[in-house]
Amino acid sequence: MADGCDNAKEIVHVDMDAFFASVEQRDHPEWRGKPVIVGAPPDKRGVVSTCSYEARKFGVRSAMPSRTAYRLCPHGIFVPGDHARYEAVSREVMGIFDRFTPIVEQVSIDEAYLDVTGSRRLFGDGMAIGTAIRKAIREELSLTASVGVGPNKFLAKICSELAKPDGIKAAPSGSEAIAEFLAPLPVGSLYGVGKVAVSRLGGYGIKTVRDLQRMPLPTLETLFGKAYAAELFAISRGVGDDEVATEREEKSISREHTFGEDCSDREFVRGTLRDLVDDVGRRLRAASRWATVAKLKLRWSDFTTITRQMSFPHPVRDDFTLWETALALFEKERLVKPVRLIGFGVGGLAESGEVVQGDLFEDVHGASPEVARRKERLSDAIDAIRSRLGDDAVRRG
């Protein structure tokens, strides 16, 4: 990726390989080399969270009903998962990233973008840094990661996908070389182009990125509207956001999840939201902050994104109020299209949970300040239990 220009930005995208399943195989040596499926058991309604590469050979995929996964791979090892343990390992992974740059954007429990532009004098170019990160993850954590390097986040992620599993790849330099690099890829490999978009594009004979590159912008606007057409036009040429956002100032705390395949199962989307809310709640309490605003984010398969927010009647940090509010926001929305991404966050962070005079008796949820404090203490207790016994030690309906 290095092109001799010290000012050229370099972004590294690190994506852990089959993270949950790999942690299980690492911690259970007898499962190594075998199909491990993390998620709901095959005799109950539920879906696969992730699976090992051995299971993927049989067609098992994330978000697939567990019963379907069992039919495809009856000899698979089904594991309910331990999110507290996965989060602990994730913190170790993120700690490795922090050695190389302070500019880290964690986008999920198992992946992050790193802006290494200012780190090259110490550690070498993006490929050298990515190689060092993979080495540290392998030697210290006995796990593997795939790494992509590019001038922006979009290209870095494309490269990490092409490097999977357990590899590293860099995008070329220069706009023409980048366009040619992307040209032979299937159009569905582009960020924001889900199954529905692939089908629509295919109907117009657009199956590869090269086909898309050949489409004039006015034609794309006629077919897909100005906003999405502009997005398609840009990403087909490797143009994307290169700003790696950090939350170090803790002005907000949020978590997002991008589905491996666009999801139309409302119950599964709701369950994913529940996990995000739990994670945000834990991080909020760990930061000793209270939130005054909740935010829901939904991105459809055509890349259209909506955000909804609601203010709390007083600063909160307990999981119960966070979930009630997140659920209230979610239930107001119809899944008009398959969901590509869902996110939940809180903002307006305060250093205390003190309420103003008008809130002394009862909030909109029917809870007095004393009830609110009890919810906080219960959430703190749940955090402590999970940290010792694992995420499944306490399950909420």
Total number of distinct structural domains: 3
Order of helices and strands: EHEEHHEHEEHHEHEHHHHHEHEEHEH
Structural class: alpha+beta
Give the radius of gyration: 22 Å
Q: Gap between N and C termini, in Å? A: 48 Å
| Total beta-strand segments | 12
Count of DSSP helices?
A: 15
The CATH architecture assignment of the largest domain turns out to be: 2-Layer Sandwich
User: Which sheet architecture does the biggest sheet show?
Assistant: 5 strands, mixed
Low-confidence stretches: 355-367
Quote the beta fraction: 15-25%
CATH superfamily of the largest domain: Reverse transcriptase/Diguanylate cyclase domain
Q: Give the mean pLDDT.
A: 86
Question: What is the CATH topology descriptor of the largest domain?
Answer: Alpha-Beta Plaits
CATH class designation of the largest domain: Alpha Beta
Strand order of the largest sheet: 5-6-1-7-8
Overall, the morphology is globular
Give helix % range.
40-55%
Please give a structural write-up.
The chain is of the alpha+beta class and 397 residues long. The chain folds into three domains: 1-173, Alpha-Beta Plaits; 176-235, DNA polymerase, domain 1; 252-393, DNA polymerase, Y-family, little finger domain (Dna Ligase, domain 1, 2-Layer Sandwich), CATH 3.30.1490.100. 41% of the residues lie in helices and 20% in strands. It contains 15 helices and twelve strands. It has helices at 19-27, 53-56, 66-72, 83-98, 120-123, 126-141, 153-163, 175-182, 195-203, 209-213, 217-224, 226-235, 266-286, 319-331, 369-389; strands at 11-16, 36-39, 48-51, 77-79, 104-108, 111-115, 145-150, 168-170, 252-263, 291-300, 305-316, 339-347. The chain has a five-stranded mixed sheet with strand order 5-6-1-7-8. Strands 9-12-10-11 form a four-stranded antiparallel sheet, with helices on one face. The chain has a three-stranded mixed sheet with strand order 3-2-4. Strand 5 and strand 6 (111-115) form a beta hairpin. It is globular and about 60 Å long. The N and C termini lie far apart (48 Å). Residues 355-367 have low confidence and may be disordered.
